[in-house]
Amino acid sequence: MKEKKIAVLGLGYVGLPLALQLSFSYNVLGYDIDDIRIKELRKGIDKTLEVSEPLLKKQQKNGLFFTTCSKDISDCNFYIATVPTPIDVRKKPDFSALKKVCETIGKLLVYGDTVIFESTVYPGATEEICGPILEKFSKNLKAGKDFFLGYSPERVNPGDKVHTIDKINKVVSGQTQKVEKDLLEIYKNLTSGEVYLAKSIKVAEASKVIENAQRDINIAFINEVAKICTKVNISSYDVLEASLTKWNFLNFEPGLVGGHCIGVDPYYLAEKAKNLNVRPEVILSGRSTNDNMVKFVGKEIIKKLPPSSSCLFLGVTFKENVPDLRNSKSLELMKYLEKKNIKISFYDPFIEHLKGFKSFKKKNLTNKKFDGIILSVPHKKMLLNFKQNFLSLLKKEGFFFDVKGKFRNKKISNYWSL
Ligand SMILES: NC(=O)c1ccc[n+]([C@@H]2O[C@H](COP(=O)([O-])OP(=O)(O)OC[C@H]3O[C@@H](n4cnc5c(N)ncnc54)[C@H](O)[C@@H]3O)[C@@H](O)[C@H]2O)c1
């Protein structure tokens, strides 16, 4: 079992839980270019809150090792890259981290090594972008002959304590039968879920990117429904509850789609489509509908408030129960409202300070009441005693904006939700 020595490169939301879980079965080294991240991990601190301190410390005692030095991982025979694949300002795939990590791995490659990618990409990227860079930086090694490529898309869902890395079904793929066999072995040791062998690397890449694009499009449809419902003065959540009594109605909710997966991955698929002269109309229309929800929600809030109102904004991360602010549409909504002269105090149990915004501390409150309370990201931690802790801070004529409809059945007056 220990003959496979695995390096996981990129220890973020995906890479750290992966390295930790693999370390129960293999000799694992974690590599990241972020010095602070490595220092924290060595102390057992995971700022992403995906992994517990005792477990992180225990597995380090059992051999899991974290480093920023690529030499430390040079005698590994399996390299798994879990680096970010974001979009640039033009909303085009930004492969810079992926290219850089290929350079790092390429320099370390020896005959017989395997390089597995977990980063989300479009079909073809592993073999067309990563393979040639690995070859270029290796010592004249050829992909598929001297070293081998594999791809296994990641499905973990930050903040989700049910569909965890040790239980979810995984898709794997490899350049040769030997790689397929190795990946099946590695990932069967990782998860108690099904490990599905895709027909090719391209199929595995495509399977991941369409999962997230499909989700984005479905949410976009429901967001459009929510806009219509707002105009006819009914709650989209009430409509959805009724529709869901039909056996084949799909369960999606309206909302702000942020983060670095659902709001990003469709652009990878769209880019591939454009390169192939296929117009990604549905994909991009979904993206634009979801992106425009910030403005829609912002306008609905402003309509109901007196000019220069003061509002308490609750939840600013990109989704519930995670500390991640990247591409947060709630943060965008808060900025939008501020620009429209709404005075914002914010509270988020995961975020203490935000440049340019006043953070709300109950103990500093001097009889102040708000014109509006906006519950944008309903973190579990905030929902306990919500009425007492937050709604009590609303002026008598004040409005409660419950973006995700958490309290829609509670008969609250001056209430709005999507
Ligand atoms: N977070 C999710 O929910 C999720 C789910 C499924 C798939 N994915 C995909 O997984 C990939 C990683 O996402 P993430 O959320 O873990 O990203 P992240 O930003 O949380 O972590 C990435 C880590 O990679 C490191 N890094 C960047 N460049 C590097 C390099 N050249 N060498 C080594 N380390 C480097 C960063 O310092 C960071 O610690 C992306 O392709 C993403 O689309 C993410």
Structure description:
The protein is an alpha/beta fold and 418 residues long. It folds into two domains: 5-198, Rossmann fold (3-Layer(aba) Sandwich), CATH 3.40.50.720; 295-418, 3-Layer(aba) Sandwich (Rossmann fold). Helix content is 37%, strand content 15%. It is built from 14 helices and 14 strands. The strands form two sheets. The chain has an eight-stranded mixed sheet, sandwiched between helices. Strands 11-10-9-12-13-14 form a six-stranded parallel sheet, with helices on one face. The longest helix has 31 residues, at 201-231. The protein is globular, with a radius of gyration of 24 Å. Nicotinamide-adenine-dinucleotide binds at residues 9-15, 31-34, 37, 82-85, 97, 100-101, 104, 118-120, 154-158, 260-261.
Structural topology:
Blueprint: E1 5-9, H1 15-22, E2 27-31, H2 35-42, H3 53-61, E3 65-67, E4 78-81, H4 96-108, E5 114-117, H5 125-137, E6 148-151, E7 170-174, H6 177-190, E8 195-197, H7 201-231, H8 236-243, H9 265-275, H10 281-291, H11 293-303, E9 310-314, H12 329-339, E10 343-347, E11 358-359, E12 370-375, H13 380-383, H14 386-389, E13 394-402, E14 415-416
Parallel strand pairs: 1-2, 1-4, 2-3, 4-5, 5-6, 7-8, 9-10, 9-12, 10-11, 12-13, 13-14
Antiparallel strand pairs: 6-7
The structure holds nicotinamide-adenine-dinucleotide (NAD).
Principal-axes geometry comes out as globular
Sheet having the most strands? 8 strands, mixed
Percent of residues in helical segments? 25-40%
Q: What ligand molecules are bound, each kind once? A: nicotinamide-adenine-dinucleotide
Q: By CATH's scheme, which homologous superfamily of the largest domain applies?
A: NAD(P)-binding Rossmann-like Domain
The radius of gyration over CA amounts to 24 Å
Order of strands, main sheet, comes to: 3-2-1-4-5-6-7-8
Mean pLDDT: 95
The total beta strand count reads: 14
CATH architecture of the largest domain: 3-Layer(aba) Sandwich
Helix-strand pattern, N to C?
EHEHHEEHEHEEHEHHHHHEHEEEHHEE
CATH topology grouping of the largest domain? Rossmann fold
Domain module count: 2
Unreliable runs: none
Structural class: alpha/beta
Distance between the termini: 52 Å
Quickly name the level 1 CATH class of the largest domain.
Alpha Beta
Strand content: 5-15%
